[in-house]
Amino acid sequence: MMKFVKEWAGPDLGSHNQEILGARLGLTDKELDDLRFSGVI
After folding, report:
1. Which of 9, 15, 16, 22 falls between 20 and 30 A from 39, CA-CA?
2. Residue 2 counted as domain residue
3. Is residue 38, in this structure, part of any structural domain at all?
4. Rounded to whole angstroms, how far apart are CA atoms 18 and 24?
5. Does a structural domain hold residue 5?
6. Nearest 5 degrees, angle CA 36-CA 37-CA 39?
7. Burial 6-40 (b: 16+ CB within 10 A, else e)
């Protein structure tokens, strides 16, 4: 039986957090750091 492996060609999970949460939604660097520290992102 052949075994298939899925490979993800897209960006790493969370790689756009700064752009989306910061630049587009207006969160500050401090707010982003707090979210990272608390494990949200």
Report:
1. 9
2. no
3. yes
4. 9
5. no
6. 65
7. eeeeeeeeeeeeeeebeeeeebeeeebeeeeeeee
Separation CA 17–CA 22 (nearest Å): 7
H helices then E strands: how many in the chain?
2, 0
Instruction: Report yes or no on 41 lying in a domain.
Output: yes
* Residue 1 Cα to chain centre, angstroms: 36
Reading the block at residue 31, the tokens are 């707010």
Could you give the angle at the alpha carbon of 17 between the alpha carbons of 14 and 19, nearest 5°? 140
Query: What pLDDT, in 10s, does the model give residues 12-28?
Result: 888 999 999 999 999 99
| Ranges of H-type helices in the chain | 17, 29-37
How many structural domains comprise the chain?
1
